[in-house]
Structures are given as C-alpha cells and as structure tokens.
Amino acid sequence: MKRWQMIKLGLILAVYTIVGCVGLAFVYNSTSKTIAQRKQADLQAGLHEVFPTATGFTPTDKVKSPNSTIVFDAAYTADGPSGSLGVAVQVHGPSYGGPTTLIVGVSTDGTITGVKVLENKDTPGLGANAANPKYYVDKATKTTFPGQFAGKKLTDAFVVKQDVTAITSATITSRSITNLVQAVAKAASGALGTAGSSPVPSSPSSSAVLPSADTVRPSSRTATSSVPGVSILETLVGTKAGTIVGASTKATAKSYDGDVTVLVGVSTDGTITGVQILECTDSLGSPILAPEFAQQFVGKKAGTPLEIGTNIDAVSGATLSSAAATALVKATADALVTALAGGGL
Questions:
Q1: Residue 134 phi/psi, 5° resolution?
Q2: Number of H helices, E strands in the chain
Q3: Where in the cell is it found (predicted)?
Q4: Concatenated DSSP letters for 310-322?
C-alpha cells in the first residue's frame, strides 16, 4: 500500500512538472515573439531617428568594430532618393550597470547625424539619464546627453569633459557611451572613406616630440625593445645643424582590453622631450588621449621609474589604461636611449 502511494505521489508530481514546463514554454514562446517585435520596432524607430529622411535601410557588412569589447549588432546603409546618406550602426558595449545599446548614424560627409539610446541599465537618476529625454546637459538649448553628438565630426576628440559634456555624477556612463559612439565613428570613417576619427592630430608629427630639432629624418635602423609585447613601429632621428639631438619612435602594446599606441621623443641626454598617446582601444580608455596625461612624461629621464601613483597620475576612470600607457612610454623611451647610445642612427 505504501509503495502504491509513493508511486501515485510520483506520478502526480510528474504530471505537475510536465504541465508547468508546458506552461512556461507557452509563455516563453508568446512573450519572446512580443519582445522580438518590440526590439525590431525600437530598432526601426531608432534608425529613422538618426536618419529621418532615409527611404530605407539596407544591411551592410562593411562596418567592423575596432574593439573586441564593443559589438556591432547590425549595420545598415541609409538609403536616400539619390543614393546613400551614410551608415547607421546598432552597437552595444560595457557600461556601469551592464551593457548599453545605441544606434549611431554617420553621414557620408563624416558627420554624426544622431545617437539613440536603445537600452541602458545604469543607476536610475544618474547614468540612466543617458536615455532620459528630459535630462539636458545644456538646459539653455535643451540638448540631451546623446543629442550633443549630432553634428560632431569624425575627427573630433570625443573626450568627456572636453568636447563631450558628462552626465552629472555619472562619468563612467558618459565615457562608456562616448566610447561606443567613437568606435562607430572610427569604423564608419573607414567604411565611408571619410577623414579618420583619431582624437589626436590627424598627422602626428615627430617634430612635436623633438622640439629642439630643425630636421627629422628616418633612422637607418629601428630601435628595439626588450620588453615582451612592445612593438616598435618606426624610428626617426632629430638633428639640429646636422648634429643628432634626439630620436623618436612610435610603439604599440596590449592594454586592459585593447591596444595602446604612443609616439615618444627622447633627447641625447635621455630626457623625454615629448609624448603623444595616439590611440587607445580599451573600452574605457579614451580619457588617456587627453594631452594633459601625456604632458606628465615630458622632462622625465628615460631609464628611471615611471609609475602610476608615484610620479605619474592616472586619469580618473581609466587607471588600467593609464598604467598600460605609462609602461609603454617607459619601454619606448628606454629603447630610444639604447639606440642613441649605440650610434649608427
């Protein structure tokens, strides 16, 4: 009898389990279709918001993300009556409270046409203001945080608190979204064939990091670094009245979740005469592109310690990127000193 009751109870539990699973499957199927339809509607609305005059949108695979942590979910050519108006990209990447998803439009003349926040999970009242149509970074003109990107050129700096106004008390969110917009701008510039989107001068000059030189020429040999992971890309020599006064080189290395590229100049006495942070593809690394960060290295000696928190200040919100750039500047400066000492440049 007890055995039969146990079997009966097991059968009842099995029936309840099956019914529950079927019910959950039904709810999932019905809601998943609704969610998919809503997302598609949001996408279409966002596309038309960044390209209001477009007659249609054609999928394209020509726009590729430059950063492994920033994902381009879809890219479209915005079609107009007389041809392409530009490209629109749905992009998502890390932010303070989780992934943030945007639609970014870029016109064929290299101008951002608009930014639409599709999803943001950051703190309500702070980072979530990125998607709040009634939160203004400029109350006089009623400009929202994403709204300020419209009209920016791909060659603009895209640096929060410089040419991008941050959301109050939400600097991380502001930088995260700015990085997503900048990633699309960089990719779009290649796809559209417009001017590049580097936030440093478009033609970084070695004369800028070798200020005492009156002539800069290619070196007969490239400096080399003994530091693992550091790649020296090119080496130039600065001369004054025919005498070598220093050398510069461009170098790259891995950073937090991307790459960092620098241009470093060193005088013959081992003094760092100039530094430019040319590129940082870290998800939150763009703040180190600000000239103020690079200026800290000028006047310091190669061969001596360069450390975050000791004689170099990290950029707020980009400590790991700051540390990676600092290590690369030191390795590059040391390589230049060795090359200058060895002669034959």
A1: -105, 5
A2: 5, 10
A3: Cell membrane
A4: TTBPPPTT-HHHH
